[in-house]
Amino acid sequence: MIPILDYSRFTGSDSAGFVADFGRACRDTGFVVIANPPVSSTLRTRAFEMSRSFFASPLADKVEMSIARSPHNRGYSQVGEEFLDEKSGIRDSKEAFNIGLDLAEDDPRILAGEPFRGVNLWPDLPGFRDTMLAYFDAVHAFGVQLHRAIALDLGIEEDFFAGHLDQPLATLRLLRYPAATGAPGEIGAGEHTDYGTITLLTTDGVPGLQVRPRDGAWIDVPQVEDAYIINIADLLMRWSNDVYVSTPHRVLPPPAERYSLAFFLDPNPDSVITALPGTGAAKYPPVTGADYLASRLNATYEHKFGT
Ligand SMILES: O=C(O)CCC(=O)C(=O)O
Ligand SMILES: [Fe+2]
């Protein structure tokens, strides 16, 4: 039900076939596994290693970079700080670290107080910053390429999305899930949909991620080595006037400690999201990228993000 597609088809001689299969998945479960991604496995491995060292550092060091002190959605979120399924009231067992578009302290957008524009917080770990910035750029570029496939599938200009994704509200999120303890009601990450356009996720191979198609039961996401799990998120569902589907998913308490790297691609803050050409009469009012993200993050955290 969740297709596995080979990215080399897109860059090679079967671009149209890839676009058709990818588009079908976007309309169907909204989840697809992509093998042979354009992100080097060396870089991916280094990012996992750095993530492990970060989470292994003392809690006191990690909470110094607490996301609760950041109005820009950057920094560390400790075990139990979030509930992705806010209705359940059950807190997620994961811990996380968020990295955004890297800006200098004196960037005019920061000085102007633009929403979500801030400096990243960096742990004192040799190589961490360089690795994460290289990884951010590689996955961002991959995400932009996938939006070319999306545009082709939707029959709009191939580079339609490029100008909406060049200074994005994207977040690279390092995630660590402790092994299941068996406590009642325990959950790694509660049932939710993602907020942005697409999410590009890669895991260390420990299972846990499940998807619930809107008309069905929970299914496990297939594990493919070195692959990326791509899913449609809510803002692209809205942008596509519900032609594409953002599907609920969750992470079960894993059988062993589990690491993943999620890249949430949200558009530029001032992008105005209205029904894409050819998708019929708009079902939703226009919204900016920044206002939409703020509304969603404020439901997940107890502290507030302003715009
Ligand atoms: O870690 C995973 O496998 C998925 C995480 C996820 O869905 C999220 O953070 O939005
Ligand atoms: Fe998610």
Q: What's the CATH class label?
A: Mainly Beta
Q: Uncertain regions: pLDDT < 50 for 5+ in a row?
A: none
- State which percent range the strand residues make up: 15-25%
Mean pLDDT: 94
Rg from Cα: 18 Å
Largest β-sheet summary: 8 strands, mixed
How does CATH name the architecture? Sandwich
Q: What's the total number of strands?
A: 14
Q: What number of domains? A: 1
- Residues in helices, as a percent range: 25-40%
In the CATH hierarchy, the third-tier topology is known as: Jelly Rolls
Along the chain, the helix and strand elements come as EHHEHHEEHHEEEEEEHEEEEH
Number of helices: 8
EC number: 1.13.12.19, 1.14.20.7
GO molecular function, one term: metal ion binding
Cofactor: Fe(2+)
InterPro entries: DIOX_N, IPNS-like_FE2OG_OXY, IPNS-like_sf, Iron_ascorbate_oxido_reductase, Oxoglu/Fe-dep_dioxygenase_dom
Explain what the structure shows.
This protein has helices at residues 8-11, 15-27, 41-56, 59-63, 108-111, 128-154, 234-239, 289-300; strands at residues 4-6, 31-35, 75-77, 95-100, 171-177, 189-192, 198-203, 209-211, 219-220, 228-232, 249-251, 258-265, 272-273, 287-288. With 307 residues, it is an alpha+beta fold. It has an eight-stranded mixed β-sheet with strand order 1-2-10-7-12-5-4-3. Strands 6-11-8-9 form a four-stranded antiparallel β-sheet, with no helix packed on it. The chain has a two-stranded antiparallel ribbon with strand order 13-14. It has one domain: B-lactam Antibiotic, Isopenicillin N Synthase, Chain (Jelly Rolls, Sandwich), CATH 2.60.120. The protein is built from eight helices and 14 strands. Bound molecules: 2-oxoglutaric acid and fe (ii) ion.
